[in-house]
């Protein structure tokens, strides 16, 4: 009897699959292509299509919805953007919905889809990022996405570069290899070890250094790579072999969608663009390097892409070889710096004694076979536009936190100081991601003429265990309150004004209000947790900003955290909840929230490309990461409803009792740590 039931159940399952398969073939009948071209939806059906297209990328279309998109595919292909009826933010691209409806295992259906892809109204770059996620594996679809990326200036590519390197995980390496060989013929020689490579490059460049004067001209160093500005502002070497110039020029020429010559895989595209821009070259190397360290030994795809990239630089002209030499020297410098900070960490004694040891080692020209106080100038990995030539030993210090990161003052070729923090024993990729998103949101808001006085400081993970952070001269809000009594007293001390509000310069108060609003909204959207007055910093010019992003996407070690970090001390600095400045703060929060919702597509696409990255709080629940950000954006609400929602969030945050209690406990913990 049990066996009989099993057979019946199995038979039912097969029958259901057959029905679904037959339904799919009928709905997608290849014979209907001619008649489908003339189909136009009526008003009611158009509203339904608008709603479907407006679905965020995490929403799965039902079978009926997929059939509807397929039925009106020709109509949709001529509509670049549809306005959603359920929300006022900019709508998602219809093309991505159509491509998700295609059964790529059916050759006829796939062929139809690819033909239509070439006729579809071109999608925006920010929408094309979705086509590089793991949801789209067909090589032609991914190459189409790259053709759209070609339209992006280097400045925008830099904003997406972390995610584009992550997207290499979903590429077909055979396709990469073929594409690379087409663009860079004869460059398959394996890359030599760093030590050998450095010797070879130094020998090539040696003659250029002969007779160089002892005094280095900062301007010469800054432009030592002989760049000229391209049409999009990218840096292009002046001298290069004619064959490579021809290859790169052809690859860079914008072509229409119908040209197969414009198709290129993602890895080859990134190598090509990185070779032509010094800033992209720097970050592409470091983003790749950390993925090589983190990847499974059996995969090694990122390592292969890195080797192809290094080989291209090595076999280029002198300028490209010099650029590779800089990368090699950066790597050597960081390796030796790691050894130095490890030695300091092993020293016995308190923080003061360790700081003295750090300064002594930096001043010793024989330590680790490198003179840290004076070395040949090179681009700083954290900020390659800055060329550094030494660390000032006497200004090196250690912070009081558990890891005791080092604060280092670098001397630049322009005679200025660039202060950075070097952390060892910490994976900075999560901080790097959050600062990337803050930088992106800052640019998006500025394009809407909304300057919220944000402080998107630089972060670069140089390994899974160490990295750099840009140091911004500032004080923790907790320290400001302890020494000055209030934030207003702090501002009055540095920027007094007889005519300004509360005796403070009006521009300082405006900066403070705007920065509070910006970080309240952004940290809410990113679900930043563990907020306390020691990781909120304040500058004398009025800028408030957040640091230490160890908890994101809703994670928080404290019980019942408020939706936003908005303490009573922060509100009192604005003049209290009844003041004009507090009302302006709320207004800026509403405006920022509405603007950022309109760019939800871009933000969600970037997070979707990070689901397989080794970012701790994404790795915990990778399948829910994008949805967590989407939920914070409240795309189900119209603009007016979204403003009311934000009003309620602010009211809840201001009156949060538990947050005040936790803040007191944190103060006790900090006291005993001292």
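Q: What amino acid sequence fits the structure above?
A:
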């Amino acid at each position: 009897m049990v066996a009989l039931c099993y057979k019946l159940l199995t038979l039912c399952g097969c029958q259901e699959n057959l029905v679904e398969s037959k339904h799919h073939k009928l709905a997608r009948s290849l014979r209907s292509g001619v008649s489908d071209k003339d189909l136009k939806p009526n008003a009611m059906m158009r509203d339904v299509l608008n709603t479907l297209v407006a679905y965020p990328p995490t929403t799965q279309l039902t079978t009926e919805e997929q059939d509807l998109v397929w039925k009106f595919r020709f109509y949709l292909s001529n509509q670049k953007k549809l306005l959603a009826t359920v929300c006022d933010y900019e709508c998602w691209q219809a093309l991505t919905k159509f491509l998700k409806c295609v059964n790529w295992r059916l050759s006829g259906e796939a062929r139809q889809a690819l033909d239509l892809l070439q006729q579809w109204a071109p999608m925006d770059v920010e929408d094309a990022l979705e086509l590089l996620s793991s949801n789209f594996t067909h090589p032609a679809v991914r190459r189409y996405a790259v053709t759209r990326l070609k339209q992006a200036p280097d400045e925008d590519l830099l904003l997406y570069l972390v995610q584009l390197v992550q997207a290499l995980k979903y590429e077909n390496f055979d396709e990469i290899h073929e594409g690379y060989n087409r663009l860079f013929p004869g460059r398959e020689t394996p890359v030599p070890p760093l030590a050998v490579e450095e010797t070879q490059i130094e020998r090539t460049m040696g003659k250029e250094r002969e007779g160089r004067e002892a005094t280095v001209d900062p301007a010469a160093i800054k432009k030592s790579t002989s760049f000229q500005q391209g049409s999009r502002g990218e840096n292009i070497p002046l001298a290069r072999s004619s064959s490579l110039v021809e290859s790169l020029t052809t690859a860079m020429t914008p072509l229409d969608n119908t040209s197969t010559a414009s198709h290129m895989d993602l890895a080859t595209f990134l190598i090509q663009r990185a070779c032509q821009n010094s800033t992209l070259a720097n970050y592409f190397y470091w983003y790749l390097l950390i993925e090589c360290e983190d990847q499974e030994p059996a995969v090694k795809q990122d390592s292969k892409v890195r080797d192809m990239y290094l080989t291209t630089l090595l076999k280029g002209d002198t300028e490209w070889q010099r650029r590779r030499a800089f990368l090699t020297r950066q790597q050597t410098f960081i390796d030796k710096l790691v050894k130095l900070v490890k030695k300091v960490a092993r020293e016995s004694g308190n923080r003061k004694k360790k700081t003295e040891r750090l300064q002594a080692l930096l001043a010793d020209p024989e330590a680790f076979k490198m003179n840290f106080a004076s070395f040949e100038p090179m681009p700083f990995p954290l900020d390659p536009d800055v060329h550094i030539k030494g660390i000032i030993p006497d200004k090196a210090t250690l912070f009081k936190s558990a890891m005791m990161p080092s604060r280092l003052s670098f001397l630049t070729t322009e005679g200025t100081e660039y202060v950075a923090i070097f952390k060892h024993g910490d994976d900075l990729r999560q901080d790097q991601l959050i600062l990337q998103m803050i930088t992106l949101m800052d640019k998006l808001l500025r394009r809407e003429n909304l300057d919220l006085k944000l402080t998107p400081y630089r972060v670069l993970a140089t390994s899974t265990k160490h990295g750099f952070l840009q140091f911004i001269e500032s004080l923790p809000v907790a320290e400001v309150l302890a020494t000055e009594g209030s934030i207003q007293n702090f501002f009055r001390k540095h920027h007094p004004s007889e005519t300004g509000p509360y005796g403070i310069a009006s521009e300082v108060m405006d900066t403070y209000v705007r920065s509070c609003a910006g970080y309240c909204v952004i940290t809410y959207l990113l679900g930043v947790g563990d907020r306390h007055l020691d990781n909120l910093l304040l500058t004398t010019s009025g800028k408030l900003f957040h640091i230490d992003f160890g908890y994101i996407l809703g994670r928080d070690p404290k019980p019942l955290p408020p939706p936003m970090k908005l303490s009573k001390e922060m509100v009192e600095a604005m003049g209290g909840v009844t003041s004009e400045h507090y009302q302006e703060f709320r207004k800026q929060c509403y405006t920022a929230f509405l603007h950022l919702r309109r760019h939800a597509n871009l933000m969600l696409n970037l997070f979707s490309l990070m689901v397989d990255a080794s970012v701790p709080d994404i790795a915990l629940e990778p399948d829910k990461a994008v949805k967590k950000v989407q939920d914070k954006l409240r795309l189900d609400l119209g603009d007016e409803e979204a403003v009311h929602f934000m009003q309620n969030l602010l009211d809840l945050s201001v009156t949060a009792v538990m947050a005040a209690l936790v803040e007191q406990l944190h103060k006790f913990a900090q006291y005993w740590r001292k």
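Q: And what stands out in the fold?
A: The chain is about 55% helix and 10% strand.
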